[in-house]
Amino acid sequence: MEIDICFSPVLYPFYRKENDTVIVVDVFRASATMCTMLANGATAVISVADIEEAKRYKSRGFLVGAERNARQCDFADFGNSPFDYTREKVAGKEVVFTTTNGTQAIDAAKSAKQLFVGTFSNLEALIQKSVEVGERVVILCAGWNNRANVEDTLFGGRFAEKLSEKTTVTLKSDAVKMALELWQSAKENPLEYLKSTEHYYRLIANGVKSDAEYCLKENSASVVPVYDKKTKKIIVSR
Amino acid sequence: MEIDICFSPVLYPFYRKENDTVIVVDVFRASATMCTMLANGATAVISVADIEEAKRYKSRGFLVGAERNARQCDFADFGNSPFDYTREKVAGKEVVFTTTNGTQAIDAAKSAKQLFVGTFSNLEALIQKSVEVGERVVILCAGWNNRANVEDTLFGGRFAEKLSEKTTVTLKSDAVKMALELWQSAKENPLEYLKSTEHYYRLIANGVKSDAEYCLKENSASVVPVYDKKTKKIIVSR
Lengths: 238, 238
What we know:
The structure is a homodimer.
Chain A lengths: L1 E5 L14 E5 L4 H10 L4 E4 L3 H9 L3 E6 L2 E2 L14 H4 L3 E5 L3 H7 L5 E4 L5 H11 L2 E6 L8 H17 L7 H13 L3 H5 L3 H8 L3 H8 L8 E4 L4 E4 L2
Parallel strand pairs in A: 1-8, 2-7, 2-8, 3-6, 4-6
Antiparallel strand pairs in A: 4-5, 9-10
Helix pairs in contact in A: 5-6, 6-7
């Protein structure tokens, strides 16, 4: 297998190959939140990039999760905290979801052969699915406003490490090398490591420290969210 | 002072601030080559992104350096090896120069307040100039076809380390953190470290191993190339 890591949604055109399986990662917090809502029985996530579109869904009676700059938007039912999306609230329902970075990253890679959503929360399920696919996997980091960030890069390193334990992987990309190196420095205590990073400050400033811990915990959800090209919704991959 | 690192020319719009001094780095090899030609007495470098434009200059009698994918273009006087540009050949002359990645990176940052060209070759001169400027410095990595690469990122880490020895620097950017981490892993022997990277293979495949060594050597040139907005040429900063 081949793996690559792309540090920003706007860089994806320069990483794209024909049979890519893209895994969109937004560690803080959209990926974990999507995994949680689907694991808690939501039937689909409708990812929208635009606040106005999310509002139109809301007025038609949909459940809506909407976040900008680490805060819940006023009109929405939920923000971007995984703890918001309890089974009681989301089971059997579709959830419209828009976040600062995660949904934009999904938009950037909709043309890929397959698009999964991944993070530490569903690592094991993601690895299994990737080995089944057996082709090129690109970790697409949502970043922050198209800037590279540490937490998404760390996940890239963790994923590359784990995948290469399970199967033979070509690790020749420079970005993969950089991510693996970063992960080696952080792996003993990723939460501690991330305390000096930009986004962690933003989360703490918004009072969601427990979210950060949850988002770095491995295998809390055994689902792989996949973008369904026909319905344009994100559902659980079978 | 504030420092940031941008991993690809296409990301610069997301890093741009009003008073940026941008240092374009293309470690293998455009930055070292430009430093060398100016240190050897070339009066200016005319950086062009397009091969056809370089050919037009050639037909008007200019000296032209042109490289694509690590090889010298047939029509050109020089390729992208710093060793091509001897004092005998370039002193007192203007050199038109186009490379796979370096000149594109210069184009991406022409709107910055100041644009320098830098690499290990002129590190000390660059640090002095940056301290004089005293504002925000962005290391703009040329990368490889807009993809992040290890060697340019390493230079970013080295620059950030060196600058913070000389003055008080804000190192809060995630990209700076990543570059510093990478540099810590590589600093004992950068050449050895780079042997497993993509571009090093390309250089070796084209028989220019000695170029790689030269490009990683610190302070072989005491010039800071600066983009002159009036003449649109790169000259030695006074």
